Amino acid sequence: MLWLAVHLPRLSIDLVSRALPEPASQPLVISEGPVQRRRVQAVNEPARALGIQIGMGLSAAQALCADLLIQARQPDAEQQALQHLAACLYRVSAEVCLSGNPSTGNHGVLLEAWASRRLFGGGQQILEQVRSILGELGFLAQIGLAPTPAGAELAARMGDGVHALSRHALLRLLEQAPLGLSDLSPDAQQLLSGSGSRYLGAVLKLPRDALARRITAADLNYLDRLSGQCADRRPLYQPPARFEQRLELPALLSSTEQMRFPIRRLLGDLAAFLLGRDAGVQRFHLRFAHEDAPASQLQVGLLQVERDRLVLFELVEERLQRFELPAAVHEISLHAHELQAFAADQSDLLSDTRNVQDSPERLLERLRARLGEQAIQALEPQADYRPEHAQRLRPASTNTRADAALPAALGKRPSWLLATPQPIAPEALHLLSGPERIESGWWDGFDCRRDYYIAEDPHLRQVWVFKTPGPSGGWFIHGVFG
């Protein structure tokens, strides 16, 4: 087996940067700890250039930069982002695990890459897939490879691109791995470092009996899992059956134009999640949280199952132009509770490649988003024998049904039905088939009692005609066959 580890050393900073249209040029720090003793947990490059370091007291950091932008750490948002990354990596491997210790800000994801190498055409292509997903989500990460999960985690923490593709290479890597990057307990690290062992390779060379007397069984088990002496069983991640993602904004936004970038980011997350689940959506909603007003929602319903980020954003953008915000927004969340199977468009080998952006379905989606839900109408069959009541107009939506229950054993029907039946002389008709008696509608005041025939008129057209029963009944053309 070959494990690929993704280490996210600056996840808390990336979560804030994701809501910004451009990389923050202002010094930014993430703070944590008690109110009286808040310290710096993460810094961006402009803050680091001013001398602000991780672990520094917040007051000392503010002394170095008067206009320092400070954001409190959000462990729940970090864990949600980690789970979302795992769901997106599910399209690379079916064995995905969450790793690291969130309480210390040590975040990561593990996936088994050996079984997927043939599917992607080799290990390099798998790495490119993982880096592409990280780029889509806006995360800066370090990637490591090793034959054991713990070894891959350690390789990723040592630096981006650190790989040990065999157990022999892993043992050589451990010769250079500092104790501080391992998952040994702080007490074990202090004890081993005090005895002169600063690298994991030196620790593994110590006599096992002597080592077992000085460190806990959990630390000893970690060393065995790290070197491959025993199995390292991890609980596999299972992606959720619904999508929910929220994005807290660094500043209040008061117009829909300002929200284009964060909404694009959320839709990108949705598209990546759907690709990992091999699914699509037909309806979802955006929720806008306001400080001085109840939350507002923008419902989005589609005529077909979609998962393309650009298509979803185009449809949302059209609806945003007609959406009024009741107050400024401090948080946006996207919810898709009904995932559906997605079938990609198939094209014939010899036919011209069809541009799906110009397909009739996409055109209807754009028109509906731009003109409103009521602007595009669809014909819906009705269970009624009377021809003029056999269908009705209704707004096209995801609930439009083309398979409504129709009366059984209907005769042949014309493709063109006249709005008003036109009288015609019976001697001008050559009857071909019929009659078909239609007698209905006594309950709603539109009683209908007719005998229908298929006939040929003087212009040799095949028409649908009827005669009202009785001695005074006349003949009428009601439809024309195409």
From TrEMBL:
How is this protein named in the record?
A: DNA repair nucleotidyltransferase
Could you tell me the keywords of this UniProt record? DNA damage, Transferase
Q: Which organism is it from?
A: Ahniella affigens
One Pfam entry name:
IMS
Q: Name one GO molecular function term.
A: transferase activity
Family, per entry: Belongs to the DNA polymerase type-Y family.
Q: Determine if Isomerase is one of this entry's keywords.
A: no
For this protein, the record's CDD domains field holds: PolY_like (cd03468)
Domain UmuC positions: 12-158
InterPro entries in the record, alphabetically? DNA/RNA_pol_sf, Rev_trsase/Diguanyl_cyclase, SulA_CellDiv_inhibitor, UmuC
Regions that span the bilayer: none
PROSITE patterns, A to Z: UMUC (PS50173)
One of the GO biological process terms = DNA repair
Coiled-coil annotation: which residues? Answer: none
